[in-house]
Design brief:
There is one protein chain. By secondary structure, the chain is mainly alpha-helical. The chain has a domain of 67 residues: MazG-like (Helix Hairpins). It contains 4 helices and no strands. It starts with a helix and ends with a helix.
């Protein structure tokens, strides 16, 4: 499954939960999604709070999936082609000096 397919599946899930409805108690705005993304990223970090190894791999996989879903949704609703953005960032990073 590629990023476009994952994004479409994520949208199907959010729609099925009713979170795109105008009266949703969980409005899917870019600000709310960015906040949720930061919260989920903090939950990844929490797994490493007291251990260099982190938590169980299932817990890490679950938290990384949450981060990915919010990232895909935020990019999609913001009109960003995430695949293109990542490739452009990689090209730019190759040209950078990492001193």
């Amino acid at each position: 499954m590629d990023l476009k397919q994952l994004t479409a599946e994520m949208h199907r899930f959010v729609e099925a939960k009713g979170w795109y409805a105008s009266d949703s108690p969980k409005p899917q705005t870019p600000r709310n999604l960015a906040t949720s993304l930061a919260v989920e990223a903090a939950e990844v970090l929490e797994l490493y709070q007291w251990s260099e190894r982190g938590g169980p791999s299932e817990a890490l996989a679950s938290e990384l999936a949450d981060v990915t879903l919010y990232l895909l949704q935020l990019a999609s609703l913001s009109g960003i082609d995430l695949e293109r953005a990542v490739l452009e960032k990689l090209r730019a990073n190759y040209a950078r000096s990492w001193e």
